[in-house]
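Thread: Newbie trying to understand structure tokens

Hi all, I'm a second-year student working on a class project, and my supervisor (Dr. K.) asked me to get a predicted structure for one chain before our next meeting. I've only ever worked with sequences, so writing a 3D structure as a token string is new to me. If someone could post the tokens and maybe explain what I'm looking at, I'd be very grateful. Here's the chain:
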Amino acid sequence: MKDLFSIRGKRFLIAGGTRGIGQAISLHFARSGASVIAIHVRDVNSAEKLRSQSLQEGLDIGIHRADLTNPKGIESINGYLNESGWTSVSGLIYCAATGVHKPIEELTLRHFDWTFALNVRAFFELVKTMIPKLTNGSSVVAISSMGAQRAVPFYAVVGASKGALESLMRHLAMELAPRGIRVNTLCPGSVITEAWKTMPDSEKRIAESTHRTPMGRLVTLEEVASAALFLCSDAASGIIGQKLVVDGGVSIVE
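---
Reply by user tm_fold:
Sure, no problem. This is what the structure looks like when written as tokens:
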């Protein structure tokens, strides 16, 4: 009997796949028998750590450096896939994100453009580039956040970009479903990553989130990665254009 939850033998491109949630997904997918290419741009140390770990564990993880906000960066990904013999791709997981956490009066157009360039525009361009390689039954998953629909302090530009991303996902889901490509959004709650260091009052926010979560703890990177694997497996073949929330239940309580 076929294991509908298995991704063994499949190929996944993971943008932002060397840090935080992206790194956890890269490792979880590769440990589950998939081949992974993880994209990064700035944090070379994290990329090299993932490369070293994958070699130690015998995982099939390729690392490629590309600026997704630059057309040449997108082109280089296609070239790297071809060099790696990837004529087809089973899924694209978009974890790449950036943002500025400041009061609205301190935000500039440069902050706005920079955030939307990676969080929305680059995803749009990458999906368009990957469509010819995405096979029937493949998946596109983008990581959003609770700030897409809830007001979070100092999160205006990032939250707006995530809201735009979620809207784009719904439209892509409608257009790509007839081609056998499933598009869904994965929305984690508070997860401890390096990104927290850029947020004001991070320790206070983490404590508040932990207190409000019904299960009494924050969700883990592994739990988010497992949800991503589910969305990319055949077990989720009927899930199209939806948002899967993995937050330990915090969003259902006042």
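A couple of things are worth pointing out once you decode it. DSSP finds seven helices and seven strands in the chain. The chain has a mean pLDDT of 94. Feel free to ask follow-ups in this thread.
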